[in-house]
Design goal:
The protein is an alpha+beta fold and 88 residues long. It has four helices and two strands. 5% of the residues are buried.
């Protein structure tokens, strides 16, 4: 991160955090993110139809692997890196 931001920042703080995704199902989560989450939309636009199908299949497999719910809904924890950068 420091290399990416270079001398533009005077202070940089990093912290691992966790988020819990909840949805009525893994497919519902995927459908929402395919429609509303810019980074996923951008990736999908770069793929042909078979690539989009493989991508969706891989995402669903990962969601189902991480799913802690036992009632058909989705409750999955994800780790992310929070970055706080203070400009010079």
């Amino acid at each position: 991160i420091r290399e990416l931001l270079g001398d533009a920042v005077r202070d940089l703080r990093l912290q691992k955090r966790k988020a819990v995704f909840r949805a009525t199902s893994a497919q519902a989560w995927l459908d929402f993110f395919k429609t509303w989450f810019g980074p996923m939309i951008a990736v999908l636009q770069t793929l042909d139809e078979s690539g989009r199908e493989r991508f969706a299949s891989d995402i669903l497999a990962e969601l189902e692997r991480a799913d802690r719910a036992d009632d058909g809904t989705l409750v999955a924890e994800a780790e992310y890196l929070e970055v706080i950068a203070i400009r010079r």
